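Page 47, continued from p. 46.
Same chain as before, 595 aa.
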Amino acid sequence: MNDYAEKIKSNLWIENRDIHQILLLEDVEECRKNLISHTINAELAMKESDIPLILRSVCVHGFDVLKNLLSKRHEKMLGFSTLELMRKSANFDESVSDCFYAEIYHLFLAMKGNPKIYPSFFMMVKEYKFSEENPGIDRSNFLDAVYNNIEKFLNKYPSGLDFEVINKRRNNKEKILNLFGAGEDDWNDYRWHLRHLFKSMNDIENLKKIMALTDEEINAIEIAIKNKIPFCITPYYLHLMDFDNADRKYDHQIRAQVIPTVHYVENMLRHTMDREYKKDFMKERDTTPQKGITRRYVMISIIKPIQTCPQICVYCQRNWQIMNPDEDAFLTKNELEKAIDWFSEHNSVREVLITGGDPFMMGDDAIEHLIKRFSEMEHIIGIRIGSRIPITLPQRITEKFAEMLGSYVKTGKKYVAISTHIEHPYEVTPETGEAIRKIIKQGITVYNQQVYTKETARRFETVKLRMELKKVGIDPYYSFYPQGKYETKNFLLPVARIMQERKEEARLLPGVFRTDEFVFNVPKLGKNHLRAYQDNEIIGIKENGARVYLFYPWEKNIVMVEPYIYVDQPIIEFLDDMVRRGERHENYESIWYYY
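Result:
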């Protein structure tokens, strides 16, 4: 047990003697009744107290959570009782984890109006007294001091646009070109990259020649390749990694994106025969009216003409479906035409999202055929293409290709947009910027969808990403909570962290920088907006301290649909991992109060 947990465990019942006495009652139902009564009375007293108004919302949410934890209906839904765990903790039962104690401790602090929020870590600046003579100047000086603290965090995360990083990657590029006896013209030709994808056992030996890899990385790649678990890296994306060492100090997200863990490949291997059923987190099989189509919403549908990418993201939502690039990963001509015809028969669909896989792996003519067919449908207003190629293989975006895409933009009638997927400022490069320039010059808007994982979750790490995105003309669109899949558990983090980032970090940016919406993708049903308290609630806390959420579907006010229960990641485990990554525990202290 670390010092933080020990302190909480020793103080919890000393500071909450009244609740402690109730929990020690022998009869559980008498305990429940008394604790509910105590909670209601305490909440009423809080509302009449002189507690600072700014803290009242935290108190109210705390009381709401405790009342949810005491609900017998919720216990029946979950198959366990948080109240019983609280009773165990009151008796110092060793089966109760440190994180459970911590959750209850901070919940009680919230209810008492004493959450550990103020002063926030980045506002611990010299106290300015705002004078009557120059309040505007004093306020401006204070905000400058706040920014100076924020800048210290931003400077921790190098960008792919930094001069030093560009030079380092120029050397990496030379190593790759020398490996294949290639030159600059080859590097600028996307077809050369597709012919030299790193995906085979021989490629592992080539990787060892030019870059540092850990034994675990090599082992995981070997298991994946031997067992045909999709694995692939483009030469371009490889050159974004730090070749000199494998400590992941700066390229942690880039390596984690494409180099699987042993846990991941072994878990995927166990489900070789039933992967389509076990790994389909979003239950796309249940929202597929026609092969190659997914429809979860009223006015937009997805078409997936291709089921592969130039490289494979480890945490891909469709890892149950994605194939290696050299496999039969395309819809047949007949299947594709049937899928397109389906759209012509459904006038309610106003936007089509062409995705996969990565549709920009298809040839120019094949992509144009798709776009042309959809542009001829009067009811289709928007054609959106989901592609990570501007980041993994920006050479693919030629002037000719961009002009073809732009030719289908018809002001007042049709728009074309691209949703791309950049995770980290280290991925934003001059090459990506040039690819985006070619696209937006054609009147096409480019949006970014980030998956907010543990690899992007340090303080102000995603703020830095938003700033770099705007430099190259990309608008932040969505920040997704990662899919809660067992094989990708190393990416997962508490839901509270993404809420904390929105309120305490993203909010400090100008509005046009923080246009991304934070969402949790509910299986079968689609996006749940995390900023909306009415769309989710905590209904339990497990023995290991994991919060249990009830997520309500987007159509809850339209039809009666069952909500979704999600077991979160324990907060202390996340904080401990951040400390291992060089972070300070206290910089995240307010995370406990995002319910």
